[in-house]
Amino acid sequence: MVAKEGNRAVKVAVFSTKSYDQYYLQKANRKHGHGHDLTFFEPRLIERTASLAVGHEAVCAFVNDRLNADVLRTLHAQGTELIALRSAGFNHVDLDVASELGLTVVRVPAYSPHAVAEHALALILGLNRKIFRAYNRVREGNFSLEGLLGFDLYGKRVGVVGTGKIGRIFARIMAGLGTEVLAFDPYPSREAEPFVRYVPLAELFGEADIISLHCPLTPETHHLIDDGAIAVMKDGVMLINTSRGQLVDTRAVIDGLKSGRIGHLGLDVYEEEEELFFEDLSDRVIRDDVFTRLLTFPNVLITGHQGFFTEEAVANIAETTLANISAFESGTGTIHRVTAEKVA
Ligand code: NAI
Fold first, then answer.
1. Alpha-carbon span 224 to 313, nearest angstrom
2. pLDDT tens digit sequence for 271-280
3. How much is the pTM?
4. Does the structure show a pLDDT above 50 at 258?
5. Do domains 11-111+310-338 and 113-302 have the same CATH topology?
6. Is the Cβ atom of 107 under 6 angstroms away from ligand 1?
7. Phi first, then psi: what are they for 83, rounded to 5°?
8. How far is the CA of 341 from the CAs of 96, 213, 294, 324, 337, in angstroms?
9. Which residues contact 91 (CB under 8 A, 6 or more apart)?
């Protein structure tokens, strides 16, 4: 493939490749004439697999790839200069070590906030109207409605934690359904103001019928939902997490489900998901007892980190990732750089 005029083809090692990554990255590489030399690796990037990237100037990684100090040092020693994340989140990268090594880290800041916000709504509706249970029943010829009772969303209070790109869209959707939307964000957004009422976090936890998390994972937000937070929530609250697994202390949530304090739980992310998600493990024994305990509750709906997974989002991820690589190589254009101090 011939690279764009003035653009040198960059050798890129793509980790955690699925069929859709390969399809959309190749398509974007052709469509925009980037002409980069993409090598696709199925394994996750971890200490053991980092050597696959030898001789590649760029490494392209996804959310469950491990970019800790050891992996970054190996990549750097092998000649990698650029880490191109196919994600918005970058909590899995040791940014201090990256900057110490002079590695550039870029990300895809927004690919489709609608995809994730709409998925949060899917979890809410699926849980509330018990769609997963109804689907199975009807297939078995069981048309009983026992146990399928839901509630009107209209008139309920929804608490949105984090009113960034995704949280704002989610708030607007929920306002459109006739709910009252409470929000907490250390940096309130003017754009969200028409749809939300900003309140302190404790008030949101205490007042909301449905709580949806849309803040990033940081040291401050780690286990934001713990025993103390659950203790002040309304009985039967619905908790939705499409953000990052470690925002929620899963053991505390299991206690909350057992006591009935948590009435519904919808998760698209899980604390220990890196050993589970994105793989077909259907013929293996799952060793994570906390996760399997979650699966036993009739009022828990879990999806495997698919909030982002729409055609529009996957195409945008591929296009921005390749544009980031071209911008890095040519020194021109927008590059969405992440450093320990600053995020673009
Ligand atoms: P964003 O950066 O636009 O918004 C995050 C918001 O959270 C900001 O307004 C920020 O001020 C706020 N925030 C920071 N600390 C907070 C705290 N302690 N309490 C409450 N709010 C706080 O990010 P965006 O694009 O809206 O994404 C949100 C999160 O969604 C990402 O961090 C990522 O973890 C997750 N995500 C999940 C995906 C999925 O497939 N399930 C896909 C994409 C993102």
1. 28
2. 999 889 999 9
3. 0.91
4. yes
5. yes
6. no
7. -110, 115
8. 9, 24, 37, 19, 11
9. 216, 217, 218, 244
Domain positions in the chain are 11-111+310-338, 113-302
Whether 27 and 314 have beta carbons less than 8 Å apart is answered as no
Residue 3 has pLDDT above 70, yes or no: no
Number of residues written out for the chain: 344
185, 193, 274: which to mutate for ligand 1, most atoms within 8 A of CB?
A: 185
128-183 tens-digit pLDDT: 999 999 999 999 999 999 999 999 999 999 999 999 999 999 999 999 999 999 99
Confidence at residue 5, expressed as pLDDT on a 0 to 100 scale: 53
CATH of the domain spanning 113-302, picked from 3.40.50.300, 3.30.450.90, 3.40.50.720, 3.40.1170.60: 3.40.50.720
Q: Which pair of structure tokens corresponds to residue 68?
A: 């800790």
Segment (H or E) for 75? helix 69-77
- CB of 247 closer than 8 Å to CB of 201: no
Alpha carbon distance 17, 46 (integer Å): 14
Residue 87: name the closest of 10, 16, 190, 170 by CA. 16
- Report the CATH superfamily, name and number, of domain 11-111+310-338: NAD(P)-binding Rossmann-like Domain (3.40.50.720)
Q: Is the CB of 329 under 6 A from ligand 1?
A: no
For residue 88, the CA-to-ligand 1 centroid distance in Å is 9
How many Cα atoms occupy the beta-carbon half-sphere of 47 within 13 Å? 3
275 is catalytic: no
